[in-house]
Amino acid sequence: MKQKKMRRPELQKSVKVRMYFMLACFIVCLIGLIGRVAYLKTVHGEEYEAQAKVQQINRYDTVITPNRGNIVDRNDQALAVSVAIYNVVLDPLVLSQNNATTQAETISTLCTYFPELQYDTLQYYISPVSEGSEEINLNNHWKYLVKGIEQDEKDELEALNLKGVYYEQTSRRAYPLSDIGAHAIGFIRGDTSWGLESYYNDYMSGETGRSFILYEQGNSITYQDYDAKDGSTLVTTIDYMMQQYAEQAVAESQEMWPCEKTVAIVMDPNTGEVFAMAESDPYDLNDPSTPLAMMDTEENIAIWEAMTTEEQVNYLNNMWKCFTVSSTYEPGSVFKPMVVAAALEEGIISMSDTFYCGGSVTISGMEIGCHLASGHGIIDVEEVLAQSCNMGMIQIAEEMGAEIFYEYQKEFGFGELTGIDIGGEASASSLLHSVSALGATELATSSFGQTFNATSIQIISAMAALINGGNIIEPHLVSHILDSSGNVVYENKNEVIRKVISEETSDTLRLALKATVDHGTGTKIAIPGYSIGCKTGTGEQGDRTRDDLWALTHIAYFPAENPEYLVMGLMYMPETYTDGVQSTAPLTKSIIENIIKYKNMEPTVDVLETTSTGDETVVLPDYTGSVTFDVVNDLDARGLTYTVVGTGNTVVNQIPKATTGVTRGSEIILYVEKAESDSGTIPVPNVIGKTYDEANEALVNAGFTVIYSGSELGVVTSQSPQYGISMSAGESVELVFELQYVEEIE
Q: By C-alpha distance, which of 419, 511, 416, 427 is closest to 473?
């Protein structure tokens, strides 16, 4: 059956009906929407308008930066501080809603306080400039105008009640002492941080606060603040005065004997507290990106500016790091007391045992020498340490064996982190021989501190254990931490990590090392009236085919009977080698003398007893065949004077002969000749005690140039090389002048 088709007039009528219906529905909806808007406007208009403003403004809350915690020394001297500063901020929308007079007054006031601001620019900020559908000015609710104004200026401006002007709190880090203690304290700048600033960052950071701009009743603008919580304060173990003494001694030593790095550490051996930690190449903590050492001459500035960015960054990173904890080297003879302590502890030797030093020994086909080529002869344990005899140490280590040696080396902390509270510490674990690798040669060389590496902090920590009763104590730079209310939130308990030797062994070594200062290699640091123990060290570094790679060390403690201070001086890679006895002594002695004065320490020994030569007898070694330089150092250490006859640097005869007993203070005659290896042709004259003019004339007439330090008004107290050493014409002799005065003793 066919479907009946609709006729055209009927179709048109149906379409019209549908259109009218849809139009009617749209009109009804529109009327309803208008009615709803009218209702909301009438009934809830003010409420919704206020909410809209709050929502609009509250999108731009601000962060309140806390003050970073301070760093102070043990006596509350500020080392690093943070002060509140403020950024001046403009809200263009808020200012634009005020009348023209208020706008003009606000802008004029800002331009008066801050001449760098331009009136037209600020006026533009509050003008309704549109870009597309967005008002690019008035939608910016947080426009920084000036950053980093001080508290007093902020308070003055805030009292004027400027409309639309707000103050964002932040802080500025400052270091009042500039470069003092730079490598220990470190700095923080953006994401870069070093030293204590980095290690204790979580304690010092504090907690941020927030500040909200709100509309309240009557559409008035108010603030809602959640205060920041300031960071905690580090109370360090550093003593500002001792730190200054260490810095001064390092600077003077570096000037006299330029080195790749010069270091000084002062520690309490009983607690591990570090009183001072100084290094050469300091930098201004307030401007750490400017290397002071590269800014001293136009030549150095040109070198710095010619560096690539990568080269400058590498230089700065190397400058910022703390050599004391992060760099390793072969310690040399300062390691010897630990070996002796281990042998005593295990009952392998006694202090009365004797050893023979003939100047050298061949082990597994390798000849190993003592610093005194002619040898020390027969000496006991105390003299092995006092004269720093390598041959005695080799024999002690041989009796000990590799396993016991390795055990105590590790027990004394070598090859492991000390745990000091500063970043970047190196363990040097990969730079020690394993016990299986300690063959006869390795054991022999390791016995006097060669062929393995250590850090300065490991060495001084091991020495602390040697003299404090045998306790390994974690070294540290922070004693406790105080929160912003003054409550202790962290405290270092100075806990003993382990006991490595007995008190008896420690007592024995502590007193035995006094001999090093009394008549051994450490006589240069003797101070009349004060009992000091010491060990010197001269360590070859790296390539043994070279003779210019050295680490020279003095490590001393006082009073020797009950040590309160442990002082270490290091000259790493000096440009010109002298020796570990001569060059490092002034560095260490200067610090000790200043501490004695600072702490007003009374003498512990009768001055007459320590300065008297008495009738003490010294048995002479055989110096024939030895280098003159080494012989005169040995004679000086034994309290003997000398005269050199001939030209050259090899001793061919001596009077009195070897094994002869002479009174301390006696004169020894050395006959020298020029060997094939000698380059020297002119003997250096003796100018000790002479004035500047007298010394300069004698040396210049002999064919030498003069380098001096100290006061020209004084007299020569030391010379290097010592007299009698032969050198080529034109070479330099270094003199130290000191003013002479008589000190009154009550």
A: 419
Q: How far is CA 15 from the centre of its chain?
A: 93
Asked if residue 601 belongs to a domain, the reply is no
Number of structural domains found in the chain = 3
Give me the residues paired with residue 373 across strands: none
Rounded CA gap, 738 and 632, in Å? 22
- Write down the mean pLDDT value for the chain: 85
Instruction: Name the β-bridge partners of 236.
Output: 478
Dist. CA 245–CA 591, nearest whole Å: 6
Compute the distance between CA of residue 229 and CA of residue 252 in angstroms, rounded to an integer: 44
Do 702 and 631 belong to one domain? Answer: no
Provide the 3-class DSSP secondary structure of residue 539.
strand
The pLDDT of residue 733 is above 70: yes
Backbone angles phi, psi at 264, to 5 degrees: -140, 135
The answer to whether 566 touches 268, Cβ cutoff 8 Å, is yes
Q: What is the pTM of this model?
A: 0.74
Q: Do residues 173 and 230 both lie within one domain?
A: yes
Given its phi and psi angles, is residue 720 left (phi above 0), alpha (psi -120 to 50 degrees) or beta?
beta
Distance in angstroms (rounded) separating the CA atoms of residues 620 and 662: 7
Question: Alpha-carbon distance 332 to 453, whole Å?
Answer: 9
Position 583 in a domain: no
In angstroms, what is the C-alpha Rg of the chain? 39
Q: Are 73 and 179 within one domain?
A: yes
If one counts every other C-beta atom within 10 angstroms of the C-beta of residue 400, the result is 22
Condensed to tens digits (0 to 9), the pLDDT of residues 649-663 reads: 888 888 888 877 888
Residues 6+ positions from 672 with CB-CB distance below 8 Å = 628, 644, 645, 646, 647, 648, 649, 650, 651, 652, 683, 724, 726
User: Can you tell me the distance from the alpha carbon of 189 to that of 290, in angstroms, rounded to the nearest whole number?
Assistant: 13
Distance CA 319, CA 281 (A): 7
DSSP string across 456-509 = HHHHHHHHHHHHTTSEEE--BSEEEEE-TTS-EEEE----EEEE-S-HHHHHHH
On the question of a cis peptide bond just before residue 559, with omega within 30 degrees of 0, the verdict is yes
Cα separation, 681 vs 646, in Å, equals 10
| 394: region left, alpha or beta (phi > 0 left; psi from -120 to 50 alpha) | alpha
Beta carbons of 679 and 659 less than 8 angstroms apart: no
Dist CA 361 CA 443 (whole Å): 13
Q: Is residue 679 predicted with pLDDT exceeding 70?
A: no
Query: Which H, E and C letters describe 150-183, residue by residue?
Result: CHHHHHHHHCCCCCCEEEEEEEEEECCCCCCCHH
Do 617 and 746 share a domain, yes or no? no
Picking from 545, 477, 575, 513, the residue whose alpha carbon sits closest to that of residue 185 is 477
Q: CA 89, 94, 96, 102 torsion: positive or negative?
A: negative
Q: Is the peptide bond before 685 cis (omega within 30 degrees of 0)?
A: no
| Residue 99 exposure: Cα atoms within 13 Å on the Cβ side | 1
**What's 710's domain CATH number?**
3.30.10.20
| Per-residue CA distances from 22 to 12, 29, 31 (Å) | 16, 11, 14
Q: What percent of the chain has pLDDT over 90?
A: 51
Give the span between the Cα atoms of 174 and 332, in whole angstroms. 40
- Which residues touch 392 (CB under 8 Å, ≥6 apart)? 355, 357, 376, 379, 381, 383, 384
Contact 681, 729 (CB under 8 A): yes
- Cα four-point dihedral sign 35, 39, 42, 44: negative
pLDDT-derived band at 221, boundaries 50, 70, 90: low
Residues 690 and 663 in one domain: no
Beta strand pairing call for 667-673 and 641-645: parallel
